[in-house]
Amino acid sequence: MNKFPDNSDIQHYGIGALANIANNEKNQIEIANLKGIEIIINSMNRFSENEDIQYVSCGALMNIASSNKENRVKIRELNGIESIIKTMNKFSENPEIQNRGNGALRYLSFNNENKVEIGKLNGIEIIINSMKNFPKKQNIQENGIGALKNLSLDEENKIKIKELNGIELIQETINNWKKNKEIQNWGLKALQIIN
């Protein structure tokens, strides 16, 4: 991937492979040690119009951040949060990108500095829009409500969620997904934190 940074096919399939193997913490650490996070974010920026690369990149960053605290910091330091939010904004009609973007922001928002960064970069608005645009997509709703729950632990974000009618959206999502334990759990926790 480093040898052929301008070859979109190599980047697409390489990042897809990284996304697939980043399902355990050992691989997440190894990917970071081998500069995989840099490669992914550089490809997102280089091929910003390539929907396939954006899709696999959001998925790879979601998996790489899922259980590794250091990777969450590294992704922020390399402007990965900004890249994810730009991608979600640009490809707002693509449910797979919205799902993986929400998932990445959900995991990244376990870190307090990342919470602030996501809020400053209009990530809350992007998450809320994705949930509104795809109300019947369970994964988008789960990842979105999980991200809003995490983000609401920051006072500024709490205000933004209220201003963007996030409370109403969370309540609506809880009502629409009564049998989904994650949505119920995260949604109710978010409402407790915000109110």
Question: Can you characterise this structure?
Answer:
The chain is mainly alpha-helical. It has one domain (8-144): Leucine-rich Repeat Variant. It is built from 13 helices and no strands. Helix 7 (95-108) runs parallel beside helix 10 (138-151). 47% of the residues are buried. The model has no long low-confidence stretch (mean pLDDT 96).
Task: Please write out the topology.
Layout lengths: L7 H14 L3 H9 L2 H11 L4 H15 L3 H9 L2 H11 L4 H14 L3 H9 L2 H11 L4 H14 L3 H9 L2 H11 L4 H14 L1
In short:
The chain has 195 residues and is an all-alpha fold. It is 77% helix and 0% strand. Helix 1 packs across helix 3.
Provide the CATH superfamily: Leucine-rich Repeat Variant
Question: What is the overall silhouette?
Answer: globular
Radius of gyration, CA atoms, in whole angstroms: 16 Å
Rounded average pLDDT:
96
**Low-pLDDT windows of residues:** none
Order of helices and strands: HHHHHHHHHHHHH
The tally of domains stands at: 1
CATH architecture descriptor text: Alpha Horseshoe
Q: In percent, how much strand structure appears in the residues?
A: under 5%
Helicity level, as a percent range?
over 70%
Tally of individual helices: 13
Largest sheet: none
CATH class: Mainly Alpha
Query: What is the number of strand segments?
Result: 0
Under CATH, the topology can be stated as: Leucine-rich Repeat Variant
Distance between the termini: 47 Å
InterPro entries: ARM-like (IPR011989), ARM-type_fold (IPR016024), ARM_LRRK2 (IPR056597), Armadillo (IPR000225)
Pfam families: ARM_LRRK2
Domain LRRK2 ARM repeat: 38-192
Organism: Anaeramoeba ignava (Anaerobic marine amoeba)
